Amino acid sequence: MSTNIKFLSKYFEEVLCATLLVLMITLVIINVFLRYVFSISISWAEEVATICFVWCVFVGASATYKHKMDMGIDILVTKAPKYAEKWLKLVTNFILLAINGYIFYMAMVFTKIAWIKPTAVLGISSAIFNLSLVVGFGLITGYTIKFIYRDIRNLSQKAEQL
């Protein structure tokens, strides 16, 4: 596998968010320039910029979660004895799996409902907005499963060492 493909597979969310962010900013700047200089605007630019923003938010959330850069309240874990810390992390990940899995499921239901509703300007399916939820929470759910697997593996290795 080439270096570029490895990079893209490892940083898929980050590359997608950066691309969408550049597209969004470019469209907004061009539209503002056209509006103030020529008194015209691109009618679809605002809708496309909004789509880019929504995708950046939810796919960016999965990138943040993947790198464990999300904010969390870990007072319970830090106050617990060292031997209980790994178990608490595992329990927390199972709770997160249930919550994120449910949101992922509901996003799919919501996307299915929105499939027939067109957007205001472009007239494309408004499911384009909801698909960002499906992708974002699908990735978050997948990462949660990966974290649970890692935690169980770490616990079993600790048990073998004893």
Word description of this protein:
By secondary structure, the chain is mainly alpha-helical. The protein has one domain. It has six helices and no strands.
N→C terminal distance: 40 Å
Sheet/helix structural class: mainly alpha
Whole-number total of structural domains: 1
Overall spatial form: elongated
The pLDDT mean sits at: 91
In the predicted model, the low-confidence regions spanning at least 5 consecutive residues are none
- Report the portion of residues in β strands: under 5%
Helix content percent band: over 70%
What is the number of helices? 6
The total count of strands amounts to 0
Topology pattern, helix = H, strand = E: HHHHHH
Report the sheet with the most strands, covering strand number, pairing sense and barrel closure. Answer: none
**Which value, in Å, is the CA radius of gyration?**
21 Å
